[in-house]
Amino acid sequence: MTTGTIMRQVAEPPGGLFRRLRERVGRTGWVATSVFGVTALLTVIAILINTNSSATNIVWSLFTLSTVTAVAAFGQSIVILIGGLDLSIPWTMTMSGVFLTAWSGRSVGSGLLALIAVLLLGALAGLVNGLGIVALRVPPVVMTLALNGVLEGAVLIYTNGAPTGNAPHFLISLMNGRSSYGVPDGVWVLVAAALAGIFLMKGTTFGRRVYAVGASPRAAALAGLRVNATIVMVYVISGLSSALAGALLAGFSQQSYLGMGDQYLLPSIAAVVIGGASVLGGRGSYLGTIAGVLLLTSIGLVLSGSSSDATKTVIFGASVLVTALLFNRSRRVQ
């Protein structure tokens, strides 16, 4: 590096440095970095508010509580990448959790078979969504919302309003245990899900096809890509992710209950959007989604540590405002 280059960098105004940084890491990378920064700030606030818990426990709680949402949000993330939306996540998760606890026996083998069965059911639900959207030309919102209602009715009929059984012991240990290093096992699940999701979307041919279809289905078709097959597979993966999230939630709760997936629909969408994805498709990353999930969870930790409703309202409003400002600012970065 020459002396002139160094002098130009030193003399460059802060705005120019930030602009160059944004250009280097890219739009989605800049959004993810910004959201991670806000999450770190909120985590510090949560540590200061929750005086009865250690900083380590709060950090581990942040990651553990984010695991189920992150898994569910992966399916939503890949669907939004093609310009779609999956509203069947709540009762796909509930179906998975309810059937898992009902079919699991006392042995590890029966629990594994039940887990495989509910994952296949989740994939089947996604296949129905995909075929309805591609073959019948039903809009994604209508198709997935209708299937969500069908799954809700099926679960209510099967359980007669009262789910039974407990989650397999290995899932309970996975979501509630700690490794020999003192790290909760749920954290490793989150790390594994993040690495697998990022690799699928960024490091595989299928991931590149998803981005191409989301950016322009017509251009992708002219390039020889099987657009309809890609769309169907995306919804299959979303159904599989939802079923896995429901199974993990059952393991965390140690049992199932009706409507257990209802609270994960809006966070799964919000996390994807906060992470910098475009609702029109073709732009976004799972790393950004993970950042969005952690941000939403950190807001929950801050609010849970505040005893005053007025304080909760102020913190929540400020967090949403900061997030909205960051997202709107990032949209200007090309």
Offer a concise description of the structure.
With 334 residues, this protein is mainly alpha-helical. It is built from 15 helices and no strands.
Give the topology:
Blueprint: H1 3-11, H2 14-25, H3 27-49, H4 55-81, H5 89-103, H6 108-134, H7 140-159, H8 169-176, H9 185-202, H10 205-215, H11 217-222, H12 227-253, H13 265-274, H14 286-304, H15 309-330
Structural class: mainly alpha
Order of helices and strands: HHHHHHHHHHHHHHH
> Architecture, according to CATH?
Orthogonal Bundle
Describe the global form: globular
> What average pLDDT do the residues reach?
84
Structural description of this entry:
This protein is mainly α. It has one domain: ABC transporter involved in vitamin B12 uptake, BtuC, CATH 1.10.3470. Helix content is 76%, strand content 0%. It has 15 helices and no strands. The radius of gyration is 21 Å and the shape is globular. Residues 3-14 and 330-334 have low confidence and may be disordered.
Features:
single chain; 334 residues; ABC transporter involved in vitamin B12 uptake, BtuC; disordered C terminus; mainly alpha; disordered N terminus; 15 helices; 76% helix
